[in-house]
Design a protein that fits this description.
This protein is mainly α. 46% of the residues lie in helices and 10% in strands. Strands 1-2 form a two-stranded parallel sheet. α3 links the parallel β1 and β2.
């Protein structure tokens, strides 16, 4: 594995400091993160299982997946991120979600 970039190091430090929280991915609060997801799902018409899937680039800890599931959306969700610690944590958190 290559050396982390400055940006990767930045997000790794945030995750180490804040753990499972919006601040770990540089959101000021859960409210601001939820408002962003609301706007995204309005623009993108959040998918149901019948409408396809979601590819979340830069997913962090996969909070968009939680937001979608809380809204009743069951579409397949794939999150990609370059911070291994976040992906490893998300895998544990969503191990019971067959569509994630």
């Amino acid at each position: 594995m290559s050396a982390p970039t400055d940006l990767q190091a930045h997000y790794r430090a945030l995750y180490a400091q804040h753990g499972d929280s919006p601040q770990a991915v540089q959101w000021s609060s859960l409210d601001s993160q939820q408002r962003r997801f609301a706007v995204l799902t309005e623009v993108a018409q959040a998918p149901s299982s019948a409408m396809g899937s979601v590819l979340d680039l830069g997913c962090g800890l996969g909070a968009l997946r939680d937001y979608l599931r809380a809204g009743g959306h069951t579409a397949a969700y794939t999150g990609l991120d370059f911070v291994v610690e976040c992906i490893d944590r998300a895998r544990v958190m969503f191990a019971d979600d067959a569509a994630a």
